[in-house]
Amino acid sequence: MRAVRVLALSVAIAISSAVALAPARAQVAIDIQVDLAPPPLPVYDQPPIPGDGYLWVPGYWAWDDDVGYYWVPGTWVLPPEVGLLWTPGYWGWDDGVYLFHAGYWGPQIGFYGGVYYGFGYDGVGYEGGYWRNGGFFYNRSVNNFGGVAIVNVYNKTVVVNHVTNVSFNGGNGGLTARPTAAQLAAARDPHTPATTQQVEHVHAAARDPALALNNNHGHPTVAATVHAADFKGAGVVAAHPGQPVAAIEPQGHRVTRPTQPSVTQPGVTPSNKTGPVNATIPRGTPPATESPPTKNITPGPGTNHKVTPDVHQRTRNNTSMPPASSPRPQGNRVTTVHPAPQVSRPTPPPPQPHVNRPPPPQRTVAPPPRPAPPPPRPAPPPPKKCPPGQTRC
User: What is the spatial distance between Cα 316 and Cα 296, in angstroms, rounded to a whole number?
Assistant: First the structure.
């Protein structure tokens, strides 16, 4: 089962990132839809930065069809290029299901559901630092430097009101944040998908049984790590203890429904040419194009899909034709279109009855004649006898 889903994460952060790596079984994709709300975010401390130039990527709950929700630890990563910031992914409720919107790199922080990930990601924007003149300046109040010497630093106190561990936006018990004008503008910026290092980090988390919700009950022993995909050693940070989260049965909660367009911010059409931007268009927004009604559609749960039977239309060469005897308006005249005359064809003759006939007589084939034996050779003449006393005859 895991081997079959080797390309599902290319089908993962990687679907949005267009990174075709082969995960073991992770399915972190923008089209992941489940009918179970993701668990609360665990509480943990940030591990120290491994070096200058690294940016913090917060942890989140991902979904796998075999184990259900599993934790992707927070970690430090190198940005793909100077000047880019990471907008975290988030879960959003939409029409009865929870959709995961993958994170991305861009010049501005976009909308991530108002989720409080901490360490500068306080639901809106990023207070962990900023780029200036090709260098990144770190805020001391939200970054753990450990023993690493960081030159570009500043100190800005970050006050957060209504801190919550809720990990999704919308729905029953979800956050009610809506994108700001700046976040909507950020959705139109060029975006860069997750790096190879980030994708490998997600793959490693999917392979670790200890990170599954059913095993850690919402408090993973590896809540964060210094280095991506490294879940052992001194750089690993465990989650704080807390109220355990009940286990779930993962099978049967993956939801499939008709494909809907996705953009980074609600109400924004995709403008990214480097990869999908991933978020939800609000219901009630008319689609750009509509396809003709389709028969025999089985909508997934949570959908309100109506099927209109094609009773009064005939399709010929992808062109809708009116009924055979319906009038067509032509100015002030009404012309009745009559059906084409039927062409009579000669009736084929009835099939001949089957008659049992005796089988044909078997033909006897004589064997070929054998060749005559060769004639016997004549006997040699007897030797001559010499008279007595003569040696030669």
Answer: 20
Residue 263's contacts (CB-CB under 8 Å, 6 or more residues apart) are 187, 269, 270, 277, 278, 279, 280, 281
- Which helix or strand (DSSP H or E) is residue 204 part of? helix 196-207
Tens-place pLDDT, residues 143-202: 999 999 999 999 999 988 878 999 999 999 999 999 999 998 888 888 999 999 999 999
Taking a C-beta distance cutoff of 8 angstroms, is the pair 212, 68 a contact?
Answer: yes
pTM, full prediction: 0.62
Rounded CA-CA distance 111/282 in Å is: 15
- Bridge-based pairing of strands 121-122 and 85-87 is unpaired
Per-residue pLDDT tens over the stretch 249-289: 888 887 764 444 343 344 333 333 333 333 333 333 333 33
- Phi, psi of 206, deg, nearest 5: -70, -25
Q: CA 51, 219, 159: angle at the middle one, nearest 5?
A: 60
